[in-house]
Amino acid sequence: MTDNVKPPLIQFAGVTKRFGALTVLDNFNFEVAPGEKVTLIGPSGSGKSTVLRILMTLEPFQEGRLTLAGMDYHEPGAAAPFRASERHLRNIRSHVGMVFQSFNLFPHMSVIRNVAEAPVRVLGLSRDEAQARAVDLLALVGLADKKDHFPSQLSGGQQQRVAIARALAMRPRVLLFDEPTSALDPQLVGEVLAVIRDLAHEHDLTMLLVTHEMRFAREVSDRVCFFDKGQICEQGSPEAIFTAPSHPRTCEFLASVLG
Ligand SMILES: Nc1ncnc2c1ncn2[C@@H]1O[C@H](COP(=O)(O)OP(=O)(O)OP(=O)(O)O)[C@@H](O)[C@H]1O
Question: What Gene Ontology terms describe where this protein resides (cellular component) (predicted)?
Answer without folding.
Answer: plasma membrane
